[in-house]
């Protein structure tokens, strides 16, 4: 697959929604998620030579956006204390309050709980549980074996359950 | 008192809690034998039921659409084009020759410096970087309540200080344009 400028622009138009969704779920802040999306597309353009046409483009883009989001998360505090995550943080900045209202308290609590986890735990959780990727696909994004992914996911799931329990 | 959902270790029946958590997340079809056992096991059943209750919340969250901000794809395209466009060249005179720096490099360096400053201060978010002959324009979304003048001045100073070691006297003019405002978190 030749990623000339025109083909790349098509990718941007086709996949920005997905990139933003992942970035928002990982960062928990709409404005920061937009930062991540812009940086991720620039990184994808500059690293397009690393994209092999035999791999799914979505796998490559998931890798780019999760790596970019992780870099953003490392630049700020490594972990946000549970009581420091505002209840409305996921719903604060976008111009569609009706749509955001649909998030609901239960779903909002899940996102707030995820935002308190270690960044390395968020990625497998978001890709597997929220994006609905298969184990093989998530392992491909993270470039680990499926057995390693299972171990990481177990720890992440247990951590998420504990956070959800705190939020009850 | 311990929490049966998160305590490590095997259950008295010998089953692993990790497998029950995975069963709650992946569904009974992923491991029918374990599902059949858990349904009848007094140790596994409450652990699985609690995990499934919590995992229903995760599934609900996954099903909620997250709308993309209007125009984000176009802004992303503009960001990419700013660093890949043909662009000009900044020429720096040096002893014995000239150093030529592509405008796209200037754009990338300015973007990195601005993003670094904004991440540290939390006053706003970078929305665009455009370059022209001798100029860099930073488009900002500022956090509501942030004093714009001092933010712009400090940001400009930071970017200029970052570019100066590379470009010397040919450091560009750095303009700051506020293009959006983001609201502080509520709650």
UniProtKB/TrEMBL annotation, chain A:
Domain RNA polymerase sigma-70 region, chain residue ranges per copy: 11-77
Recorded GO MF terms: DNA binding; sigma factor activity
InterPro entries: RNA_pol_sigma-70-like, RNA_pol_sigma-70_dom, RNA_pol_sigma70_r2, RNA_pol_sigma70_r4_t2, RNA_pol_sigma_r2, RNA_pol_sigma_r3/r4-like, WH-like_DNA-bd_sf
The UniProt record lists the keyword DNA-binding: yes
An annotated GO BP: DNA-templated transcription initiation
Keywords linked to the UniProt accession: DNA-binding, Sigma factor, Transcription, Transcription regulation
Domain called RNA polymerase sigma factor 70 region 4 type: residue spans: 109-160
Origin superkingdom: Bacteria
Family: Belongs to the sigma-70 factor family. ECF subfamily.
Protein's UniProt name: RNA polymerase sigma factor RpoE
Organism whose genome encodes this protein: Actinokineospora spheciospongiae
Automatic annotation (TrEMBL), chain B:
Superkingdom: Bacteria
Protein name: Asp23/Gls24 family envelope stress response protein
Originating species: Actinokineospora spheciospongiae
